[in-house]
Design brief:
Blueprint lengths: L1 E6 L2 H13 L4 E5 L5 E5 L5 H13 L4 H4 L1 H22 L3 H4 L2 E2 L4 E2 H7 L1
Antiparallel strand pairs: 1-3, 2-3, 4-5
Length: about 120
């Protein structure tokens, strides 16, 4: 993970991280002691692309390419949440594999052995 830059206020930083997410660049936003916000990129292979996007954003934050970023980022977050929910449905844990039998919370095999 590497820092590519910072913003003086949180709103601009969040807007830019939404743009990065819409471009499938995973980033992290962190507050600094001087009240600025640092942008950290998670994948080293995407550093150059993120830095060039940061330069374009700092030159013209109201450019057309940045305007749809919040909506696209919201869609990306929604898709990620749906993927996570589908993953959790597929994963089996001890509790879903071994159903409790009776009021004591013992498994059926234990109950049969006791009987």
């Amino acid at each position: 993970m590497r820092q590519i830059g910072s913003f003086p206020n949180e709103a601009q930083a969040r807007f830019f991280t939404d743009y990065l997410l819409s471009r499938d660049i995973r980033s992290q936003l962190e507050p600094e002691p001087d009240r600025s916000w640092s942008i950290w990129i998670q994948d080293e292979d995407q550093i150059n692309e993120a830095q060039s996007a940061l330069k374009r954003f700092q030159a013209n934050p109201v450019a057309q390419e940045f305007q749809k970023a919040p909506e696209e980022a919201a869609r990306a977050r929604q898709k990620e949440a749906e993927d996570l929910a589908a993953y959790r449905k597929r994963v089996r844990s001890r509790r879903t594999l071994f159903v409790k039998f009776g009021n004591y919370g013992i498994g059926i095999l234990t109950f049969l052995l006791m009987a």
